[in-house]
Design brief:
652 residues; alpha/beta; TIM Barrel; Rossmann fold; FAD/NAD(P)-binding domain; 3 domains; 8-stranded parallel beta barrel; 22 helices; globular
């Protein structure tokens, strides 16, 4: 076997796991607003269990009304919740493939919101967990005791629901870790003060669960190995706490890092210190060294996580003894069969997570259900069966971007005779441009995956050919899928010479420029990436954005990353501003009532795109069945293009 350590059995307490791969806890927002399990949620977890992972940690589950953190978070507060969760565990155990399933018990504490619960958040002390958070109410002594018992009762309900074990969320500034930290625990009673007082709440929960459920029911906790915040808990503090938890009876330790309210991003060599859901510009496995320190100090299994995106990396971590189990999250959203494919030597068939955070982290912050940029079936597992086409048709796909490639692969999988034509020399479309900026190289992995899918499925690919009505008449397809993408927009600017004006797409594609200094108009994600690329090349760059902030279409961690990148590299940023005219090599910027003059050799427009759908109208007039997919419908994200391509391939 290629990865012998990964696929070696191990134990957590009394339980044997078939391999050392765990699925980490990820909020999905697939439950009802009452916290009830849905068929969608069951299908999602069952598909991951089918894929070969040894242990599934089901996402954080609330058990008291004020502890709910998300609108559609799973609940464990009543017998009705237990019944739904029993359906979930029955589905996983019904596979009879020895995949184990734990439930994470979660109380949001001061990170809860009255907008979700209708109640004031509660915490050990009246200290907001981060600037701008709602002020929590300090728990009374009686309420603290009640929450200890509520944790114990939740664990008992989890066992009743058929879970093989439970995990307590003790990381990232939620209720339990806010008792541990001196920054958020300022109590004067026995639950505050020194380490003994601050750990009392956690240890009483552990001992209470042990007393109620006995020594053989597996119990783990998830901690921040280092809070990375001044005055908070460092790695030595957390190791001391972990030892106390081990003595109290836990069977395993999940080691994450960081907390809310920490310092702003200052050191780009260690962005994981402030980023919770690590984006693609962070180093894979960047939290492993922290877990390795705990491994040296504990007897129980240590579980590491944090952008471990390939099984080869997991094998290296385990072989070097840095952890006992590797937990992976987003890669299992991208491809639930990742473990199985790796074990069978089919890595080329794995849909790669690109850590874009578009469908997962960004949507969770918006209280939306999780989707995935590279996996259109995420959240649709109950309807994932391939429906064979009847009758099979000759289908022509025009445009080999993400929508066109995904659509062609799906249609071929269904049995159609598929031809894909691309006017350029390589398949990839805008994915080719998206992978050019610094820190975005992982997008290439998805491009290569889609190209491999075309080859494996037998799609006929024709490059360097422009499709016209005459080509359609020659090929005589039964149907045509148009996935011709979009074209970048430009603005009419008084005094701008033709040679001075280009688009971000021109820069990313390597088109010759008139030279710097560069003024980029539009500081959305693409504009920021273009500025990052040019400034990395030593060019003088200015960004102008009409909105109050840059990167408004990106998640907050990516925005923070660009803020510090531009500060460090001297990129000048004007927000709430626009370019009003050019005077030779002077760009005139209006920022409020002020006009600013900036020396400019090239103006780069990053102001969106418009659909390229001219072929569609021509084909409609010919009476041919035509479907549009991707940016030629409306320019959007990779996520939308891939999903729309998949649906088109299913529909034709």
């Amino acid at each position: 076997m290629r990865y012998p350590t990964v696929f070696q059995p191990c134990r957590i307490g009394s339980l044997t796991l078939k391999n050392r791969l765990a699925m980490s806890q990820m909020t999905m927002n697939y439950a009802t607003e009452e916290g009830l399990v849905t068929d969608k949620l069951i299908a999602y977890y069952t598909e991951r269990a089918k894929g070969g992972v040894g242990l599934i940690f089901v996402e954080g589950t609330y058990f008291t009304p004020e502890g709910k953190g998300y609108v559609r978070q799973i609940g464990l507060a009543s017998q009705k919740h237990v019944e739904g969760l029993k359906r979930l565990t029955d589905s996983v155990h019904g596979l009879k493939n020895d995949t184990r399933i734990f439930l994470q018990i979660h109380h949001a504490g001061g990170r809860a919101s009255a907008k979700v619960t209708g109640l004031q958040p509660v915490a050990p002390s009246a200290v907001p967990p981060y600037p701008g958070a709602e002020m929590p109410r300090e728990l009374t002594r009686e309420e603290v005791s009640g929450l200890v018992e509520a944790h114990v009762e939740a664990a008992a309900r989890a066992r009743e629901a058929g879970f093989d074990g439970v995990d307590i969320h003790c990381a990232h500034g939620y209720l339990v870790p806010s008792f541990l930290s001196p920054l958020t625990n300022r109590r004067a009673d026995e639950y505050g003060g020194d380490l003994t007082g601050r750990t009392r709440f956690l240890l009483e929960i552990i001992r209470g669960i042990r007393k109620r459920l006995g020594p053989d029911f597996p119990l783990t906790i998830k901690i921040s190995g280092d809070e990375y915040i001044e005055g908070g808990l460092g790695i030595r503090d957390m190791i001391d706490i972990a030892r106390l938890a081990e003595e109290a009876g836990i069977d395993g330790l999940i080691v994450s890092a960081g907390t809310v309210g920490g310092k702003k991003l200052e050191d780009l060599s260690e962005p994981h210190k402030v980023m919770r859901t690590l984006p693609m510009m962070t180093k894979p496995g960047c939290l492993v060294p922290i877990a390795a320190e705990f491994k040296k100090s504990l007897r129980i299994p240590v579980i590491t996580l944090g952008r471990i995106n390939e099984i080869a990396l997991a094998e290296e971590i385990l072989k070097e003894g840095k952890a006992d189990i590797v937990a992976i999250g987003r890669p299992l959203l991208a491809d639930p069969e990742l473990p199985k494919k790796a074990a069978e030597g089919r890595e080329a068939e794995i849909r790669p997570c690109i850590a874009c955070n578009e469908g997962c982290y960004k949507r969770i912050l918006q209280q939306l259900d999780v989707r995935c940029s590279v996996n259109p079936l995420l959240g649709k597992e109950g309807d994932s069966a391939v429906r064979r086409a009847s009758p099979a048709k000759r289908i022509l796909f025009v445009g080999a971007g993400p929508a066109g490639m995904e659509a062609a692969c799906r249609a071929r999988e269904r049995g159609h005779d598929v031809t894909l034509i691309e006017k350029n020399a390589a398949a990839g479309g805008q994915l080719l441009l998206a992978s050019v900026p610094p820190g975005r190289r992982e997008i290439e992995h998805f491009t290569n995956y889609l190209r491999g899918c075309l080859k494996r499925s037998g799609v006929k690919v024709i490059l360097n050919e422009e499709v016209s009505p005459s080509v359609i008449r020659r090929l005589q397809p039964d149907a045509v899928i148009i996935a011709t993408g979009a074209q970048p927009c430009v603005l009419a600017v008084q005094g701008l010479q033709a040679a001075q004006g280009v688009t971000s797409w021109d820069v990313l594609s390597g088109k010759p420029m008139a030279g710097g200094p560069y003024l980029i108009v539009g500081a959305g994600l693409v504009g920021c990436e273009t500025a990052d690329l040019l400034s990395d090349r030593g060019e003088k760059v200015t960004l102008v954005e009409i909105l109050p902030e840059i990167a408004c279409d990106a998640d907050k961690d990516t925005k923070a990353y660009f803020d510090i990148r531009f500060q460090n590299k001297g990129v000048k940023v004007y927000t709430g501003a626009n370019l009003v005219r050019m005077e030779d090599r002077l760009a005139i910027i209006r920022n409020g009532d002020e006009e600013i003059r900036i020396e400019t050799g090239t103006v780069v427009f990053s102001v969106g795109a418009k659909p390229e759908d001219s072929l569609y109208d021509q084909l409609i007039s010919m009476g041919i069945e035509v479907i549009k997919a991707g940016d030629c419908v409306k320019p959007r994200s990779i996520l939308d293009s891939v999903e729309e391509g998949f649906l088109a391939g299913n529909r034709v």
